[in-house]
Amino acid sequence: MDVLTGLVDTALASTHMDAIDALRAFFILASCTILSVSLLPDSLHSRFVVYGARATSTDSKASSSAATTTSSSSTPSSPAPRVLDYLASLRVPHSYFTQFYVASAAASVFWGVQLLYRGAAFQAFATRVSPEHLQKSMTINQVLLCWTCMFLQGVRRLYECFAFSRPSASRMWFVHWLVGLAFYLGMSVAVWAEGAGTLLTRPIVLDDVKVTIAPSLRTFVFLPVFLIASGLQHDGHHYLFSLEKYTLPTHPLFHRVVCPHYTAECVIYLSLAFMAAPRGELINKTILAALAFVTINLGLTTANTRRWYTQKFGEDSMKGKWNMIPGIY
Predict the structure, then answer these.
(1) Which residue has the higher pLDDT, 38 or 226?
(2) If we measure between CA atoms, which residue out of 276, 211, 18, 1 comes closest to residue 114?
(3) Where in the numbering of this chain does the 3-oxo-5-alpha-steroid 4-dehydrogenase C-terminal domain appear (predicted)?
(4) 305: CB partners within 8 A, 6+ apart
């Protein structure tokens, strides 16, 4: 534990930033990085960005093209393409997505224990929060609610990874895997970070978890939104699993939106951002920064999915459909 605490403290000290600002900066930097990568030329985009089923045809075409070029040319290729091909070859199985939710659930449990006992890792983070952020703090009830929601989200997605999975040869670039792990580890902190002021003031006690406590208006509105979005996402994942491989979805959820399960993911984090808003704030800015990452990441994946559907099923299959956010995108 001392080693982990030292790592947390060293990481925060090296940024010379308030801990909450550093967490927000991570989400924003990751979002900007994804946007930058999306602007890469097609040759680089197909190497590093596309993954999963959408990459299957691309990879085979690239391999075929490379083989043709090799057989038809006796001159050695230039170093740059070879370096890019090597970097692109550093891939992990697509099944490694499961590790995102193992990390999410495990990190939630770890921080739950830290918050309950005000452990060393919690102290290392909370003592590096600026007075401004400590003053505008979430309540204990908000912390417990949002921690529970994030834990349930991680457990549900972990269950779906096991229940709705098929053997697959598809792979993803190792950077996707590392960024995904970092995101979920960051989210396990984001759901309580802006409650550090309250958590430093007093410990969590049994009375804080009584179900007889009347919910706030914010909770009354956005907890059902979180639960409904979670249910719709589960239904979407179950339906996609029930389809024959590479079949066009026809479920009502998919009539007007290409990836409604991604829409639900965004709504889940949006509802968390409202439920976790500190006193005097409309929304939790740390989770809002995480939502920006989720929206950009899934938005680009949705664009690739739409492109793949169009190539496989024709342009008419995508007519009248929004990518992810009805009326906007």
Answers:
(1) 226
(2) 1
(3) 213-329
(4) 54, 258, 259
At residue 138, what is the residue type? M
Mean pLDDT of 188-197: 96
Lookup result for tokens 């978890």: 209
> Exposure pattern of 277-313 as b/e (b: 16+ CB <10 Å)?
bbeeeebbbbbbbbbbbbbbbbbbbbbbbbebbeeee
What's the structural domain count of the chain? 1
Cα-only R_g, the chain: 22
Distances 75 to 59, 69, 81 between C-alpha atoms, Å:
23, 10, 14
Does 327 fall in a domain? Answer: no
Q: Which residues pair with 173 in a beta bridge?
A: 91
Q: Whole-angstrom Cα distance, residue 162 to residue 296?
A: 26
pLDDT at 208 over 90: no
Enter the pTM of the model: 0.85
| C-beta of residue 49 within 8 angstroms of C-beta of residue 304 | yes
- Domain span including residue 99: 18-33+92-206+213-318
Residue 49 falls inside a structural domain = no
> Is 230 domain-assigned?
yes
User: By three-state DSSP, how is residue 173 classified?
Assistant: strand
- At 92 the three-state DSSP class reads strand
Pinpoint the alpha helices (H) of the chain: 2-15, 19-38, 42-48, 53-72, 79-88, 97-117, 120-126, 131-135, 140-163, 174-193, 196-201, 217-242, 260-275, 285-313
What whole-number distance in Å separates Cα of residue 79 and Cα of residue 65? 18
Residue % of the chain over a pLDDT of 90: 55
